[in-house]
Design brief:
By secondary structure, the chain is of the alpha/beta class. The chain has twelve helices and 13 strands. It comes from Halomonas chromatireducens.
Amino acid sequence: MTSSSNGGNPRESPRILVVRNDKVGDFMLAWPALACLKAAAPTLHVCVLVPTYTAPLARLCPWVDEVILDPGADAGRDAQRSLLERLRAGRFAALLTLYSTPRIGWLGRRAGIPLRLAPATKWAQLFYNHRVTQRRSRSTRPEYVYNVELADALLLALGMAPAARPEPPYWPLPACTATAQRALLGQELGIDTTRPWVYLHAGSGGSAVNLTPGQYAELARLIDERAGEGRPIWVMTAGPGEEATAGELRNRLVGDGLEAVVLPPRKGLGDFAMALAAADLLIAGSTGPLHIAGCLDRPTAGFYPARRSATPLRWQTCNSESRRLAFSPPTGAAESDMATIDLDAAASAISDLVRRREEATSES
């Protein structure tokens, strides 16, 4: 287990440990809460506990000062003891657990962290001395809003006043970053940098319900038909083990007369995220790439099941409202019956968003 720091002297200010130690999309939806902590108290030393997989993103987060790696629930006793010792040595003033599990609650209490705050759900809450009732299972608000509410509650418990909530992007990059990424990728892929680039991520990450590759191919064809002279270049992206699907989809689009390429494997998750900064729009299910793009405030079109725990509202991307679209099965359809989604209507809405994006870019 290792840790890293993004700067600052950890002994000069209160030290806060924030835990979101599951998947990429879940972690990206924690960034608004991290931004709120820093906006209210810039001197806070914010440390995050994350798994190795999401650590590259955590190290790039502008709201994070330090990263501690979580070996996971399946790690042996020695690894758990090492993590406990690391938390004790951290001398944290507070623990904010955005998704509580008994193991993390137990570690926080054993580490002697005096203020421990988490959602008031499940029996894991017994390890916390500050709890916030949210009833997330009702899915009445976006996940990132639930996280921000917990961050505000932590600030109040520390005697600090929450600040006005930051606006997107929650992953602000210098203006030149997207331009530089576009130039590099344009050269690497041999594609025109002046045309719209629509990224298409057909993978599911092993969890999200998604459209089939055939549905994505039909959607791309419908969007291309509506594009006129502004026909996009389609960039297929893939997660680990999804490369074959991306290649097959690219071949299908090319066979339909569309211009399409596959984004080659990047040098780690951080490099992949930077490649998303060059997108004019990203289309995907509710997966990590969709939420990375949302944090970057790139335009997104997400496809969601109608299941209450996975609705478009609950797992809404955290980009600007004008830059996000969401589609799910209609009322009365089976909750995971993605075949009932009206692809023609989705294509029209996505085409309009791409067109508005191009018009705004040409005017700037």
